[in-house]
């Protein structure tokens, strides 16, 4: 545990996969928004945003199954299959002539592939690390920020140079080479160290291969609160990301500088994921979750509201990247600590699967609110909507942490009583 070239190869593979899994539907999708509005001049911003929303929600919806598949059938096969599907999806998207073509290709098909690569990527490192689990998860999760940091300006450059269709094909090649190659490094631990827990893992796989069962952990109140927390978070977190480029133009920032802001957002996300993962090993990860949740809420309600120039909007993008990434990094760490590393992909697959409707609804509501302000575009109602949803999610995060701590105290009390009885 916590050492060996295979262990760190798995982390590197997870980083590489996560540079791209959500990039075309979330972290660099803002770069595509203006291009698609030009391609389809009669389309509304909300209908364009629906492409990315469909992709992200499909990723989470398929998580109901891909998380279980990766836990039961192996990470490499699942992830390699997903990378091929993502490549095919982007190549098909490059030939789109109607908006619904993009819904099917860059939306649904890419989302299926992304789900098959993402859940193995977040589940595999937990099998190899215990003491340094937070750091390993943080480094792995930093891939999405790293990908957005260099892919956002790179994608804008490719679009300016070669147009959007060839850019989509180039991203398809990236998926095939980088994600496909990284999938081969998602090693699973063998029995050479003789650890009992891994023998139990193998028995678990043999037992559950033949049938899918509803795990016991889904029946508790803490799990239900976790689902609601993630659901409310999904109602809001895409809004600042999807409208980043459009809002930049709205306040007088050029398209190129808007891509720079997007890049800095992802760069901050990259650093924050590593740092928050390291902190999760040093301090209580549930406390870190609450700090990030409430800080993210304040960032939207205060910093975004008063972002009227390049410097102020850049500050908001960086702070949002830091705080939001902290949430997404420490949540899997808490899940691994609470339910065990064996269950991470399955738990998060179910939790994110319930969130798919929230992703669609949240982006649709944000776009509709913005359209209601025409002909004088006003982003303040959109900001208030996103901030209020974040506040609700922070409340449920707080409730979840309280329940987990209470449950832990009860288990410690029972353990102490049993020990005293045996003595």
Automatic annotation (TrEMBL):
Query: What's in the keyword line of the UniProt record?
Result: Membrane, Transmembrane, Transmembrane helix
Tell me one Pfam family matched here: MFS_1
Query: What membrane topology does this protein have?
Result: Multi-pass membrane protein
Keyword Ligase listed: no
Identify the residues that the record assigns to the Major facilitator superfamily (MFS) profile domain, covering every copy.
Answer: 11-409
Record's subcellular location = Membrane
Any one annotated GO CC term: membrane
The residue ranges crossing the membrane are: 45-65, 77-96, 102-122, 134-154, 166-187, 220-243, 263-280, 287-307, 313-335, 347-370, 382-404
Note the InterPro entries from the entry.
MFS, MFS_dom, MFS_trans_sf, Proton-linked_MCT
Looking up CDD domains in the UniProt record yields: MFS_MCT_SLC16
Instruction: Cite a single GO MF annotation.
Output: transmembrane transporter activity
PANTHER family cross-referenced by the UniProt entry: EG:103B4.3 PROTEIN-RELATED, MONOCARBOXYLATE TRANSPORTER
Family statement = Belongs to the major facilitator superfamily. Monocarboxylate porter (TC 2.A.1.13) family.
Could you tell me what this protein is called?
Major facilitator superfamily (MFS) profile domain-containing protein
**Organism annotation:** Mortierella hygrophila
């Amino acid at each position: 545990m916590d050492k060996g070239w295979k262990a760190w190869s798995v982390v590197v593979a997870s980083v590489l996969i996560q540079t791209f899994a959500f990039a075309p539907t979330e972290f660099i999708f803002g770069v595509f928004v203006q291009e698609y509005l030009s391609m389809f001049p009669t389309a509304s911003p909300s209908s364009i945003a629906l492409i990315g929303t469909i992709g992200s929600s499909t990723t989470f919806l398929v998580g109901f199954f891909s998380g279980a598949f990766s836990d039961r059938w192996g990470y490499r096969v699942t992830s390699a299959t997903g990378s091929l599907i993502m490549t095919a999806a982007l190549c098909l998207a490059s030939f789109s002539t109607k908006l619904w073509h993009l819904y099917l290709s860059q939306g649904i098909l890419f989302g299926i592939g992304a789900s098959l690569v993402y859940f193995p990527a977040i589940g595999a490192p937990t099998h190899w690390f215990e003491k340094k689990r937070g750091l390993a998860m943080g480094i792995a999760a930093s891939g999405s920020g790293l990908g957005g940091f260099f892919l956002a300006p790179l994608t804008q450059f490719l679009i300016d140079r070669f147009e959007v269709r060839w850019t989509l094909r180039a991203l398809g090649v990236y998926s095939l080479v980088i994600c496909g190659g990284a999938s081969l490094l998602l090693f699973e631990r063998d029995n050479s160290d003789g650890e009992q827990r891994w023998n139990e893992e193998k028995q678990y796989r043999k037992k559950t291969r033949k049938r899918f069962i509803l795990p016991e952990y889904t029946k508790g109140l803490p799990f239900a609160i976790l689902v609601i927390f993630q659901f409310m978070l999904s109602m809001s977190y895409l809004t600042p990301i999807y409208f980043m480029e459009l809002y930049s133009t709205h306040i007088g920032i050029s398209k190129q500088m808007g891509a720079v802001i997007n890049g800095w957002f992802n760069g901050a996300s990259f650093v924050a994921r590593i740092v928050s993962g390291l902190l999760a090993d040093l301090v209580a990860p549930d406390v870190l979750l609450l700090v990030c949740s409430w800080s993210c809420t304040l960032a939207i309600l205060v910093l975004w509201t008063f972002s009227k120039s390049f410097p102020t909007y850049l500050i908001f993008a960086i702070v949002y990247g830091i705080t939001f990434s902290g949430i997404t990094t420490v949540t899997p760490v808490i899940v691994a600590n609470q339910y065990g590393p064996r269950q991470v992909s399955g738990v998060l697959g179910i939790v994110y699967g319930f969130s798919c409707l929230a992703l669609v609804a949240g982006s649709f509501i944000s776009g509709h609110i913005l359209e209601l302000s025409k002909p004088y575009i006003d982003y303040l109602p959109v900001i208030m909507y996103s901030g209020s949803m974040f506040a609700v999610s922070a409340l449920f995060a707080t409730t979840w942490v309280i329940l987990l701590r209470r449950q832990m105290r009860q288990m410690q009390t029972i353990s102490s009583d049993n020990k005293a009885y045996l003595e």
